[in-house]
Amino acid sequence: IPLLYGISSHTLPVYGVVFxxxxxxxxxxxxxxxxxxxxxxxxxxxxxxxxxxxxxIAATAAGALAGGWVVDHWGWATALLINGGTYLWSVVAxxxxxxxxxxPTVPTPxxxxxxxxxxxxxxxxxxxxxxxxxxxxxxxxAVWVAGGFLHVAGNQxxxxxxxxxxxxxxxxxxxxxxxxxxxxxxxxxxHGYRISRAWLLGGGLLLAGAGLMGFALTRHFAAFAAAAFVxxxxxxxxxxxxxxxxxxxxxxxxxGRVFSTRDFLMRxxxxxxxxxxxxxxxxxxxxxxxxxxxxxxxxxxxxVIAWGxxxxxxxxxxxxxxxx
Length: 324
Prior knowledge:
0% strand, disordered C terminus
């Protein structure tokens, strides 16, 4: 990105590179989520997802803290070049994984438009029929909506409250958010099995809505940090438990399709969130926009709890109960 922008001094080539990156993610992210149950025993699935989430949270917290300082002192181009180097390390780490399929491989069917559309339809069918899948996607969607509102209105809210605008404050807040997420992930892995997953997801969203409301109503950095910690703590169930729910509630042959559907829906939800937040911020200001986002997230939390209680009354629904 910095090399292309330096040569062209235009953002159009950068958009092309970003488009390519997200195209690669279309293959990478569903495969990462779908392969975890293939390399981890069922009884350790939640623990494995906790470790994966913890690694992501720790890296995000450290990267945000260091990245904010690098951008302010060395420039955004240097930050992106360092970030590119971390992807090379990821390639090495992935290459060291020895994967042996747990089931005998079957011949790959011939690829055609008809088969592609059929498989897409099967993925959407699983999402519609399976209440656990729907519950997980609803919780994730609420978190992505909150992310969209914070991305648009939250950034402006923070910068306007700062005496000297810059990325270091934002990096520090992201680090605190990561710390909250790390604590939430640890608690769920140690004690979350005692509580219904619907209550964990819904209660987390209600708490995230409260944190977002606190974020909207203050202009002090200490209060921002406290709200960020609460939001990170509350969002942990949505990322960790939804991953486990989707893995447990789908057959191996359909898992990749379900995770592909999840990623498509989450990107769509985020796009809608940032678009609505942009319009609301221009019309109402950052504070009112963040309040709207908080209400939406809290309402989603209430819906998740109600949906979970309803699903528990349906026989053979794997929604409620322990974490495995």
